[in-house]
Amino acid sequence: MPVRFAYLGPEGTFTEAALRTIPAAEQGERTPARSVPEALEAVRSGTADAALVPLENSVGGAVPVTLDELITGSPLMITREVLLPVEFVLGARTAAPLAAIRSIAAHPQASAQCRRWLQANVPDAVVVDVLSNAAAAISAATGEYDAAICAPIGVGRNGLTVLAEKIADRAEAVTRFALLTRPGPPAAPTGDDVTSLAVSIRHDQVGALLAVLTELAVRGINLSRIESRPTGEQLGTYVFFLDCTGHVAEPRLGEALQGLRRICAEVRFLGSYPKHRLQPEAPVAAPPGLSDDDFADSAAWLERLRSGG
Amino acid sequence: MPVRFAYLGPEGTFTEAALRTIPAAEQGERTPARSVPEALEAVRSGTADAALVPLENSVGGAVPVTLDELITGSPLMITREVLLPVEFVLGARTAAPLAAIRSIAAHPQASAQCRRWLQANVPDAVVVDVLSNAAAAISAATGEYDAAICAPIGVGRNGLTVLAEKIADRAEAVTRFALLTRPGPPAAPTGDDVTSLAVSIRHDQVGALLAVLTELAVRGINLSRIESRPTGEQLGTYVFFLDCTGHVAEPRLGEALQGLRRICAEVRFLGSYPKHRLQPEAPVAAPPGLSDDDFADSAAWLERLRSGG
Amino acid sequence: MPVRFAYLGPEGTFTEAALRTIPAAEQGERTPARSVPEALEAVRSGTADAALVPLENSVGGAVPVTLDELITGSPLMITREVLLPVEFVLGARTAAPLAAIRSIAAHPQASAQCRRWLQANVPDAVVVDVLSNAAAAISAATGEYDAAICAPIGVGRNGLTVLAEKIADRAEAVTRFALLTRPGPPAAPTGDDVTSLAVSIRHDQVGALLAVLTELAVRGINLSRIESRPTGEQLGTYVFFLDCTGHVAEPRLGEALQGLRRICAEVRFLGSYPKHRLQPEAPVAAPPGLSDDDFADSAAWLERLRSGG
Amino acid sequence: MPVRFAYLGPEGTFTEAALRTIPAAEQGERTPARSVPEALEAVRSGTADAALVPLENSVGGAVPVTLDELITGSPLMITREVLLPVEFVLGARTAAPLAAIRSIAAHPQASAQCRRWLQANVPDAVVVDVLSNAAAAISAATGEYDAAICAPIGVGRNGLTVLAEKIADRAEAVTRFALLTRPGPPAAPTGDDVTSLAVSIRHDQVGALLAVLTELAVRGINLSRIESRPTGEQLGTYVFFLDCTGHVAEPRLGEALQGLRRICAEVRFLGSYPKHRLQPEAPVAAPPGLSDDDFADSAAWLERLRSGG
């Protein structure tokens, strides 16, 4: 059980809020890091047991630095995912009518996600870019700007007054975080798990990517996420980040993983961990003929053929 | 070790010649059957230990009755294949110049395979259809016709004189025979084996057959033969007979067989047995990345992932 | 319009019956040939305008000699298919109780299709193999044997009495015949057509056959029949006979044909002709998104992209 | 010929440098925009004829805001790509030894790309995040910080002294920019073109993405880039950005585009334009059997079949 947690800081951002949903972290030691690489370095070097970093956002997409860190340096393993609905608020030092707001501090990604709300409600305010949601909250608290777009967690920490809640244009935005540890045995399957992989493919993209997807499709593996990243070596070469439904301990996924291992230049296993669901939802069912029972039946049949039984 | 052998008769045909290449049959008891179903019935009922029947000919194609028998009735298993070069001779009761031959008895498939030779060498002779190569030889021996197209084995048995040898238009024609027994454990792999299957596919042909081939291709299984047979139920529904390189005891083929079992309406395993080669030839190599070593490597890798090692 | 028709003889077989369902042939000149090659040679040499030969039977499978003839020699084109339900009768010179029948002449394929009826109804009769259904009827008419299994057409022609009708074990057996002419422009599409092809594939079977099926599947082409034939060159090399739903004049099939032409060692176009249906039945619908309308829509869209419209 | 160019500002960044490599832009009117959406809005509204914005970087990956803008709002078309090697310099108000530098202003992505250089050469300097490379240069020019990581173009514009050149950890980093206009007829093919697409796929990712890649592979289309973006609707639904080798006017690509149009929920054509190569390099060759000549040959063959010629 990890005790010392690193996370992408500063304090008062969504990552801290996500971390505190994990009971062990709420009770343990939480240390903000200045960057994703720094948070992961703390785990690699042993000064932290685990690190929570953002992986992707349903509006903004993948977090490149996290993906890049996962495929370079010594291996790390995702042991848990945390989904956190993204809620932006407009906060200010004191209560004020919206019409009185002349300047608003915001991280560019935050203001982008609230663009339509801003045009409709504070069309005359100047939006000033700052470097983080936490920095925005601080600049409103100090009075540098009239208001700030920030996370709810930034309101309490800086003693702000909420002028408007849920101001994001898309109400359903979600950020997904990964809790990373040094490699070890994966937790036991729960029946509703995710397995994350980073797959480097050879040469020509069409054929190689077709082959990867075929290995998965033949075993009925569902792909809940696919993300390509250039390798940094040259335009046109990629690593694919895949999230598959299932657990490495299961025969279906085990067979598919072996297939990928055989055909890919490199497969990095990034962990099998429980799927985090914000609402109760059934796990994705296997296609007809490709359920775990079907795999067990075909294995028993092969055994009979081999023994002549 | 089988002792009592049934075979497709009558005596004096290629099937008897093929059977006698098997040492146990040369020393054992050999009983001709009037038809392929009768030969196989002898095995099913236990009056014979094994039966040799023709499977396919490189010129004439598959032998439908054999294929149909393999997928109906109680299961049988191929334990051995025998390849026999097909050599036709022109035999007669006594020596005679070809110009003197006015009538030739021949099984229609035999005369078809010698058509060009007949046109070139005995253009004026009448070719009379008879019901087997053996019947042809007998009718020449009795003087009913001037000559017969028959197998070399039919010459000695009927005291014929050979007027011409190797008269088939294609010198390299080969017939392949299968030795069938009741089901049991397959013989151990030799490193150069064949596995035969009968696969019934569902509904639409393009998609279902694509899926079958994909299961094989993904595991690097080579297909040395594919033969479609209507199921007899209606035009457009098929059973496919597949000969795969490899042995059911091997991981590669075992995984592919399980895959077929899961997606096909029915898979009938027809045996794993040594490849018979008329000339020394290397077994077909697995595609790059799909060798037995690659399968062993990927299995060991998966084991490490699962144990966290 | 063809006037002189050759067909696989002798007179009094199913092929003649099939030919007479074609009005032009009923009124035209009909010449039996001794063999399929002879019938086709009559067309190739110009002594006949068209030839009708059997292509496949729902019980017995493909007719190898017809397939082989279609891929060798100068090209011929299927301009029409004829489906004929196969009905066997037991005929004799005079009326007699079944119990009195001691010998029955039959072509081996005919007796095979009636095996269960024979066992149940004339268990003690000896079945004697003869070379055609017509020969069986003649031998009953001459009194050489007590009865014959033959086609209904053979009854009238030989003045036989029908002892039993519809004696085939499978009531629904159907034979499919092809009417072949010298190549020319295909008839106009009817909206319910078949296109026949012979496709030679390269090297390794799994990959090459996968590629062929993929070319068809991508264009939503339905495969109503697939038949493999060894090329005769060596065991393991094949020609595939494909019957596709659609007409060469249609964009969908045209695009698929071009794809096959590019990837196959050889594609022989064997004709586009109306589907013969024994019962009224709707043509096979294209998969979703792959209808003729979808093809027209995508072509129009591409045109707009190219013109910048 | 466009005359009025918008570009992602501020002045003095890589985008301005890239724009000035286009002769018409060097001579025309160049207006910096505060954001990618603003630059593109200038084109959509007609206040600019074309806009240059960054598309991807070989190290940092895709520029999400550009991709998102390309698939929302009224369509725009890429008419040109510009590749620019990314070179970072360390600039300061006056010459100084590196050991004297205590604070460095940098855009976070710039400092990330120079991380190893910074550790090795100025290990004790504090790196301060600022909002753009141009802002970094300005803050060094005003003396707010001792030095700045910036683009070479930022040096001249702000009168800085270069303390170190080519300080990026990866010497070969390249940024790719797109010149966007309102839709119109694409420029004529040059024989070395790129076609960009945005493709929305349905439902399950494995099957739908497999189908997309198969449409391309069957026509031998090379994929030089694939980038997935969440649609913003929910985690797990994607738009794929594809760069294909070839031009919409060519038969191969035209056929593939039609195929995508039929199977995808939506295909947005983003333009066909000349490939920009920093070094002379041959275009990617088509796979065997899938060259333009092979397409022409198969089209001619189909024409002969249809006409019966």
From TrEMBL, chains A, B, C, D:
Site (Essential for prephenate dehydratase activity): T175
Taxonomic superkingdom: Bacteria
Catalysed reaction, written as an equation: prephenate + H(+) = 3-phenylpyruvate + CO2 + H2O
InterPro entries, alphabetized: ACT-like_dom_sf, ACT_dom, Chor_mutase/pphenate_deHydtase, Preph_deHydtase, Preph_deHydtase_CS
Keyword Chloroplast: no
UniProt xrefs under SUPFAM superfamilies: ACT-like, Periplasmic binding protein-like II
Recorded GO MF terms: prephenate dehydratase activity
Sequence ranges assigned to domain Prephenate dehydratase in this UniProt record: 4-182
Pathway connected to this protein: Amino-acid biosynthesis; L-phenylalanine biosynthesis; phenylpyruvate from prephenate: step 1/1
EC number per UniProt: 4.2.1.51
Name recorded for this polypeptide: Prephenate dehydratase
Organism: Actinoplanes lobatus
Gene: pheA
